[in-house]
Design brief:
GO terms for molecular function: DNA binding; DNA-directed DNA polymerase activity; nucleotide binding. Belongs to the DNA polymerase type-B family. Keywords: DNA replication, DNA-binding, DNA-directed DNA polymerase, Nucleotidyltransferase, Transferase. There is one protein chain. This protein has 891 residues and is of the alpha+beta class. Helices cover 30% and strands 26% of the residues. The protein contains 24 helices and 39 strands. The strands form eleven sheets. Strands 9, 10, 11, 14, 15, 16, 17 and 39 form an eight-stranded mixed beta sheet that branches. The protein starts with a helix and ends with a strand.
């Protein structure tokens, strides 16, 4: 309508205040017509807004004249301030939305109730029948998804674990409508738990408990002095005395039969089991809600007080790897119900695609090995796997495939229960928090950080400061600088002594973000610098560890004389949409085949001058030291800073060194890495999804008719997921922390490359590939390992073989030190096609192969005896596979 009639129309609505429905994308020279869409009794009508500023005038308490932005409804005292704001507001986020900022306040640890262990946790798993979907071949011009299988839940198992570790025997079922049967069984468990919570156990205290309470001086909940306000806190499930607490803190730990949630844990709920459950949830009564990624994938969803969560959102590995990482004594629940558990302490073997009908369960022997083939992986099981399946069948006396399926499902549930219970115990011991009270590891680690450090972070109240910082948020650099390299030194086959020796070295920074999080980071005191011109001459002198820091918006010149030296790893990368005129003829050909989109923003390192570039002051100092020129400082935001995250990072680093199992080592690494994600949480990307039942006709009609409606996903005739655009966005996250961490991490990588490697080798060092914290290098030198000895302080060589001259534990796991990903094993050859898609051939014949986005490439795509063009062609095949896809239908 707008284009056909040369109009520009903005549409606003009303929801406890003015909200934004639509902002015109027409050229700015076309006058705007503002309309207010009013809804009443399911009917809508438009009314003309004569003056938007007057309509919005009472939206805040300030009484002076105000000018409002139509995208975010933020008001300004002067029109010139509004005009300066508009380009930045338009450049952040795709959707116009009413933005609200906190009036004031500090962010501190508040979730004291999450220290209380969840009274009951349920662990569960499904098995499914997979039937082939017949249909036409995939037309790549219309879709990248080929529907191949129909999945129907055929069995389940679950076990309920009480907070003191007590359990009942696992509940199992195999038969029709398994997902619906499962939900109804859980609702019975829910009612039983509610009855227990309604009758709390009386407190039992030993003499030691009385003495502990008498001498207590601090509240065990908030860790503040009791000062006469002391009550006895006890577990309402077991009656056991815990510790002394403030009366108010004690109330925070209160359990209610009507509100206390019951976590139901699946491994890979988001990717698999949730689809099975969503087909059945409409068949049972109860209040339904969700925390979505989108209309098809959910971080969590709830049915009544049952809260379904995904253990894979905490423990980022397949279940079999988690089992292998734990000590055998950790599996107490499995031992309780499977005394002969030795055979079960590994990934089970199951013919998923063979199980395509109910009759299969009656078969009295394992199918032949070839029937264990998986189309998803493009591979069959190994001989040893098949032998293991036969031993399990015999040892546990399976009479048919039904018995084998029950055992397989029950084993997965018991192992999951032990793994997650061990995770809970470790978390409660080290952080005083129960993971069962959270949805993901970032949420858990963020609270652990706030609790450990006791920090108070200032919430930004100035929207322009928030926009300013968002403008400076740029992720890690991932790029191929050179597509192919072959080493030439005595350690590789085909060595030519007539040519110069050169080596390929694959380096990785130890916990790069952990290093950045240990640096001084903003905490508050944000204020604009009034004299930016005066800052031009002094910014280089600002100390890295001083009490104040700066985020700046600058113009930078990239001198021509630096271009050759910096071509492989340009400074100051920019977020930009790559223009078609910059592309090669080959790239235009890819666009024509539909293999890529030109309209996608990428982080692009480039040698162009930078205008209005927002960055951390330490990055600016490094860039200027490496030869860039500062032309102008447009704006500067001053802040107070301190290394406030360092105690938490150091604690996890030390715990990892002391860990006695692979599981603990991985956990402490995860707790450092996942907290970073929370520091840069982008609230603009959150979606709002409503789960609506068929009988809620008025609600469904209202959502579908709303201008905020985005899309719908219909599960069946009784349930649909409706996504709506958010009407309000409250920006209450410390994004300045994430922005600083991202920028500071780049300083370490750039500093090492330019001030260490290039200072040592000059143009004899060439960057081949980089991905955030790694550098793949081609270095012309007689012996690169001998060179490393002379600079041993830069490297962590603790992973080298003990007999290797470079082996040392002096820098073991030291943050920011460089490690050799191949641990001293020479690299013979490298090929890189694109970011996160490359192949490295070691001199011993081993291959490092990466193809992000492809779950599992069929083995034939990698089956190249050598590198060179063979692997290049196979990588291209994997790249094409990545752009296609397979999926299944859910029953």
């Amino acid at each position: 309508v707008e284009r056909q009639n040369d109009l520009a129309i903005n549409v606003f609505g009303w929801d406890k205040g003015v909200i934004v429905h639509h902002v015109s994308k027409q050229p700015e020279d076309i006058p705007r017509t503002n309309l207010l869409l009013i809804q009443k009794a399911g009917k809508f009508h438009y009314t003309w807004i004569k003056n938007l500023n007057r309509l919005l005038y009472d939206q805040n308490k300030h009484r002076e004249q105000k000018h409002f932005c139509e995208r975010c409804l933020h008001g300004y005292k002067r029109e010139d301030l509004l005009e300066a704001h508009r380009p930045e507001c338009k450049g952040i986020g795709q959707t116009a939305v009413r933005v609200e900022m906190p009036q004031e306040g500090k962010l501190t640890f508040q979730n004291h109730h999450k220290q209380l262990p969840a009274p009951y946790v349920i662990y569960a798993d499904f098995e499914a029948l997979t039937t082939k979907v017949e249909g036409p071949e995939l037309d790549p011009t219309k879709s990248n998804t080929q529907k191949t299988q129909h999945h129907e839940a055929c069995s389940y198992c679950y076990v309920v674990v009480r907070c003191d570790g007590k359990t009942e025997a696992p509940a199992e079922y195999r038969g029709p409508n398994a997902a619906e049967h499962f939900l109804r069984a859980l609702q019975v468990e829910e009612r039983g738990i509610q009855k227990v919570l309604a009758k709390p156990q009386a407190m039992r205290m030993t003499n030691a408990d009385w003495e502990s309470h008498r001498t207590a001086s601090r509240c065990h909940v908030c860790d503040k002095p009791l000062e006469g306000d002391s009550v006895k806190d006890h577990c309402h499930i077991t009656g056991k005395y815990r510790e002394a607490a403030h009366s108010a803190c004690n109330l925070k730990l209160r359990l209610s039969p009507k509100t206390t949630t019951i976590p139901v844990v699946f491994h890979n709920l988001r990717g698999y089991d949730s689809h099975l459950l969503m087909q059945a949830i409409s068949k049972v009564e109860g209040r339904v809600s969700c925390i979505p990624n989108n209309t098809e994938k959910y971080i969590s969803f709830s049915l009544g007080q049952l809260r379904f969560i995904d253990s894979a959102q905490f423990l980022l590995a397949p279940l079999d790897k988690l089992v292998a990482a734990n000590k055998p004594e950790a599996f107490q629940i499995t031992a309780r119900y499977e005394p002969d558990r030795a055979l079960l302490m590994r990934k089970g073997v199951y013919p998923y695609e063979y199980m395509d009908s109910w009759e299969r369960f009656e078969e009295t022997q394992l199918p032949p090995k070839e029937d264990f083939y998986s189309k998803l992986t493009g591979a069959n099981i190994s001989d040893s796997d098949y032998t293991h399946a036969q031993r399990v069948w015999e040892t546990f006396g399976c009479q048919n495939l039904g018995n084998y399926t029950d055992l397989y499902c029950r084993t997965d549930v018991l192992l999951l229960a032990d793994v997650f219970e061990n995770f809970r115990k470790t978390s409660q011991k080290q952080y005083g928090l129960d993971p069962a009270n959270y949805y993901t590891s970032p949420g858990l680690s963020w609270d652990a950080l706030l609790k450990k450090t006791g920090v108070e972070l200032e919430l930004l109240t100035d929207y322009d400061q928030h926009l300013f910082i968002e403008k400076g948020m740029r992720g890690g650099i991932s790029m191929v600088s050179k597509r192919h390299a072959r080493a030439n030194n005595p350690a590789v086959e085909g060595y030519d002594p007539e040519k110069p020796n050169n080596h390929i070295l694959y380096l990785d920074a130890n916990n790069l973000y952990g290093w950045a999080m240990s640096q001084p980071l903003p905490t508050g005191g944000f204020r604009w610098v009034e004299d930016c011109d005066g800052l031009v001459g002094t910014i280089q002198d600002q100390p890295a560890d001083g009490p104040e820091g700066f985020i700046l918006e600058v113009d930078l010149e990239y001198p021509q004389e630096l271009h050759d030296e910096h071509n492989a790893y340009p400074l100051a990368p920019e977020r930009m949409v790559v223009q078609k005129k910059w592309m090669s003829e080959y790239q235009h050909g890819l666009l024509g085949k539909g293999m890529a989109s030109a309209e996608v923003e990428k982080l692009v390192p480039n040698l162009r001058d930078k205008n209005h570039y927002v960055l951390h002051y330490r990055n600016l100092q490094l860039y200027l030291g490496l030869g860039m020129k500062l032309k102008k400082i447009h704006r500067a935001l001053r802040f107070e800073q301190s290394p406030w995250m360092e105690p938490y990072i150091r604690m996890n680093t030390e715990l990892r060194k002391q860990a006695t199992s692979a599981f603990e080592k991985d956990l402490y690494k995860l707790m450092n890495n996942s907290v970073f994600g929370k520091t840069m949480e982008n609230l603009r990307k959150r979606v709002d999804v409503k789960l609506v039942r068929a009988h809620e006709e008025d609600k469904l009609r209202r959502l579908l008719a709303s201008p905020s409606f985005a899309r719908a996903n219909i599960f069946d005739d009784d349930l649909a997921a409706i996504e709506v655009h958010k009407s309000r966005l409250v920006l209450n996250r410390p994004v300045y922390v994430g922005m600083s961490i991202l920028d500071l991490s780049k300083t370490l990588m750039y500093d090492f490359y330019y001030n260490q490697l290039l200072a040592q080798y000059g143009d004899r060092c060439q960057l081949l590939y980089t991905d955030t914290d790694s550098l793949l290098l081609e270095i012309e030198t007689e012996d690169v390992y001998r060179d490393m000895v002379a600079h041993a302080g830069l490297y962590d060589t603790s992973d080298y073989p003990r007999e290797h001259p470079l082996h040392s534990v002096e820098n073991k796991k030291v943050l920011g030190k460089m490690t050799d990903e191949c641990a001293g094993r020479p690299i013979a050859e490298y090929i890189g096609l694109r970011p996160k898609m490359y192949s490295i051939l070691e001199a011993n014949g081993d291959n490092i192969k990466k193809a992000k986005g492809v779950k599992k490439a069929p083995p034939y795509l990698w089956a190249a005896p050598t590198q060179g063009i063979a692997v290049s062609l196979r990588l291209q095949a994997v790249d094409r596979r990545k752009r296609g896809g397979n999926s299944c239908l859910w029953a």
